[in-house]
Amino acid sequence: MKLEQIIKEANNPQKEFYCKNFHCTLLAISLICRGCIKILNDRYGDSFRYTINFVDKENGVWFWDNDDLVRLREQILKINKTNTKNADLLLLKWRKDWKKFKSRLDSLDKIKFQELADKEFIDLYNNTWYLYNREMSLPQLVDSFLSAGKEDWFLVILRDYFYEHDIKADVLEVFNILTQPVYPSFVNKEYLSLLKIAQKIRKKDKINNLLDKHQKNYYWIENNYHHAKILDKDYFFGKAKILAKERDLDKKLKQELSRIERLKKDKIFIFKKIGRSKEIINVVKLIEKFTYWQDCRKEGVLRMNHYVFTKFIPEIARRTDLTIKEAGLLLAEEVEPALLGRFNKNLLKKRTGKLYFIYNQNNDHLILTGKDIKKIDLNNLIGLKKQINELKGTVASPGIARGTVKVISNPSEFHKMKKGDILVVNNTTPDFVPILRLAKALVAEQGGVTIHAAIISRELKIPCVIGTKIATKVFKDGDLVEVDAEKGIVRKI
């Protein structure tokens, strides 16, 4: 699709878009676009036709066309209807990509970037970028399982199945159990590891080796598309010390160790209750595999961004006489020209405010800045067209809670969150976990059984409604709201 046509679609009031918010720099976001679209299309035979990104200083919104989400998901469900061999083959291909990508990341620690000749540094950047895009191309199919519509797509499938077979069970309860992940996320693994260290602290056992291993495994866990935060041993020791003071530490550890097995047993019980439909079982298997894949993709992004912000951007800035901030305003495609002195640095001055970045399957891209941003109606992309006091979404974790809203879009706003607040977000990421433990309930704009907010809310057992689409635009800090995560409704009170 041509870039001019994309702008026309963006302004079509009949179109619906799925938006994902990021705390970001332009370079970190643009690094993944080729993999998400062109390389995925080359390898899979289809992909998202385009992405539109809106960036306002350090906050960005990524827009997918809902039609693309639905089309790709229906393809995947059709191909894997009788068995999930196709999905297994894709995962096998990805594991080979991951092995090469991880090997490259491990090698970067041994390279002295400043000693490389310009051509050597350009080759290193381009090859790392290529391996990154290849590794994260196939997992991008996970986004097709996001919710594109008024109801979660799998909930619709379950409702139809219950109606056809006259099943009287609570469909929401069944939905919540069947969509629970049966593979521990890296956030869950890190928490379990910390609990074990906390237990050692309580017993006054030696923990130095455990802390070393923990720090080596998870130093990157609070990274994002805006910055890298290298977590040291003291940071993790401080977290473990707090856990060691909790009275129910041993109980929490026991629950975490047995949680996955309990979930598997719950699913077996549900299928005995509703019947062992091969189609439903295969959809659940796909959700489990894609949730796992989503977590792996996120880990790859966070690990890569460690090197983007601690290695590549500083070195790009040094070699081009740009500031760190200016280097972060480059597109991934502009890095090589900038290093070769073939890039107009004055363009970066126009990117310090609001901008749109558009990317299509042909590898074409366009940036709109200044007056040109008026070519796209942001409210139309977001779907914000009238005054609203109540939103409907999908239940991710059941319960009912009332409290004060805190709208948080990135880590710089974490300080606003107090215990008992209602956390309203586009979606959560692993660095949100500390404030999630303070939340009385969680409301997310993104929808779908694979999103982080859905997974983490179940792990923490807090009421959660996802798929609200515009919650961060409707609700403001200080609003009193009721989160009815039995019916999937969030309303001002």
Secondary structure layout plus pairing:
Blueprint: H1 3-10, E1 17-23, H2 26-30, H3 33-44, E2 50-56, E3 59-65, H4 66-79, H5 85-108, H6 118-137, H7 153-164, H8 171-178, H9 186-202, H10 208-218, H11 233-244, H12 249-274, H13 278-320, H14 324-327, H15 335-339, E4 354-360, E5 365-369, H16 378-382, E6 390-392, E7 394-397, E8 400-407, E9 422-425, H17 433-436, E10 441-444, H18 452-460, E11 464-466, H19 471-474, E12 480-484, E13 489-492
Parallel strand pairs: 8-9, 9-10, 10-11
Antiparallel strand pairs: 1-3, 2-3, 2-4, 4-5, 6-13, 7-11, 8-12, 12-13
Q: Average pLDDT across residues?
A: 93
Quick one: overall form?
A: globular
- The secondary-structure class comes to alpha+beta
Number of contiguous helices: 19
Strand order across the biggest sheet?
Answer: 6-13-12-8-9-10-11-7
Largest sheet: 8 strands, mixed
How many DSSP-defined strands?
A: 13
The low-pLDDT segments are: none
Rg calc: 23 Å
**Number of separate domains:** 3
Beta-strand percentage range: 5-15%
Notes on the protein architecture:
By secondary structure, the chain is of the alpha+beta class. The protein has three domains: 3-143 and 300-381, no CATH class; 166-274, no CATH class; 390-492, Glucose Oxidase, domain 1. Helix content is 49%, strand content 14%. It has 19 helices and 13 strands. The protein has helices spanning 3-10, 26-30, 33-44, 66-79, 85-108, 118-137, 153-164, 171-178, 186-202, 208-218, 233-244, 249-274, 278-320, 324-327, 335-339, 378-382, 433-436, 452-460, 471-474; strands at 17-23, 50-56, 59-65, 354-360, 365-369, 390-392, 394-397, 400-407, 422-425, 441-444, 464-466, 480-484, 489-492. The strands form two sheets. The protein has an eight-stranded mixed beta sheet. Strand 10, helix 18 (452-460) and strand 11 form a beta-alpha-beta unit. The longest helix is centred in the middle third of the chain and has 43 residues, at 278-320. It is globular, with a radius of gyration of 23 Å. It starts with a helix and ends with a strand. The model has no long low-confidence stretch (mean pLDDT 93).
